[in-house]
């Protein structure tokens, strides 16, 4: 039978208390974890009330609990993922990743680490183009598929992938010239993740991350309407979080994108038209660049930021 200490490590003390209140019989750890996960799933579907929601979404998650939830979420997500989901973000994601890759400069021959490498992420992309790359992901299912992709591309020995959490990096100090990531830091304990990045970067090394922002009201509404699309422990970054970067690193800058551009999704979901969607996307990008230069205050209301920082 599981001890209270074991359950607290797996779920957090408050979650254990709530689950035991609802299920007042003795259970082992795996059963309690299963009940908690089912509770969260039902909440996403709108089945349970606000009392459980407070337990599932409002309480800050302890590190072990956060990592467990993130691992399970992404293990399940990769099993269910459909080709349509990749298409949904294909245009804006490709543009943003293009901006990140452009910021790297000449990366051939450099040691690069990718946080949250996914199945076919930047570790593989840059490894195919001359970099020496490592990557990790918290999901074992993702890493299994990604390693098969590495074999398919003939990149054995050039791209090394591991199952790992961002808060507990296993790489030696001063291992990498560059660290990169796409929508990963907002899943992590930010202070611990940045401490790890600083440790594994060589002196003068740089990091580049694309992350979602939390200030736009419309995006907040969308996230509330689609809770199943993200884990209950992730939290988009705010401008207030940037002090963590400034405290730790010698240089830090950020570049925002996608403000008016969000309107182009009218032709993606409401009135589907691929031609109009693409035309509108690039026109709105042009308008965004002008508007954000004229009124810098609006940067915080963009969807995505490109973070650039240096050790």
Task: Please give a structural write-up.
Strands 3-2-1-4-5-7-6 form a seven-stranded mixed β-sheet. The chain has 14 helices and seven strands. α1 packs across α5 (63-80). The termini are far apart. It has helices at 4-11, 13-22, 29-44, 50-58, 63-80, 83-88, 90-104, 122-127, 140-152, 190-200, 217-225, 242-248, 266-270, 274-294; strands spanning 111-115, 132-137, 159-163, 176-182, 201-212, 251-257, 304-310. α8 links the parallel β1 and β2 (132-137). The chain is an alpha/beta fold. The protein is 50% helix and 16% strand.
Bin the strand percentage. 15-25%
Shape type: globular
Question: What is the count of β-strands?
Answer: 7
Number of helices: 14
> What gap, in angstroms, lies between the N and C termini?
47 Å
- Secondary-structure element order, as H and E? HHHHHHHEHEHEEHEHHEHHE
Tell me roughly what share of residues is in helical segments.
40-55%
The main sheet orders its strands as 3-2-1-4-5-7-6
For the sheet with most strands, the description reads: 7 strands, mixed
- Please tell me the overall pLDDT: 82
Q: Spans with pLDDT under 50 lasting ≥5 residues?
A: 1-9, 23-27, 42-60, 82-90
- Derived from helix and strand composition plus strand pairing, the structural class reads alpha/beta
Q: Radius of gyration from the CA trace? A: 20 Å
